[in-house]
Design a protein that fits this description.
Blueprint lengths: L11 E3 L4 E2 H9 L4 H8 L9 H15 L1
Antiparallel strand pairs: 1-2
Helix pairs in contact: 1-3
Length: 66
């Protein structure tokens, strides 16, 4: 039986590196920008298919902290 993961923190945002939404959010809270997050996790350094999704997620996080 397949189950659907409803925890968004576990959602994979970069399939090349396996970086999750929760990892990105945690690194953002540490003050890392998109380039530093990419260097730390490997996200955005493969096929770049996640670039827009991660950029939009980081923008939403930044907007929520203002």
């Amino acid at each position: 039986m397949n189950t659907i993961n409803t925890n968004l923190d576990d959602e994979i945002m970069c399939s090349c590196s396996g970086t999750t939404r929760g990892e990105i959010q945690s690194l953002f809270k540490e003050g890392l920008d998109i380039d530093a997050i990419s260097r730390r996790t490997g996200a955005l350094s493969g096929c770049a298919g996640c670039e827009w999704d991660i950029a939009q997620f980081l923008k939403a996080l930044a907007d929520a902290t203002e």
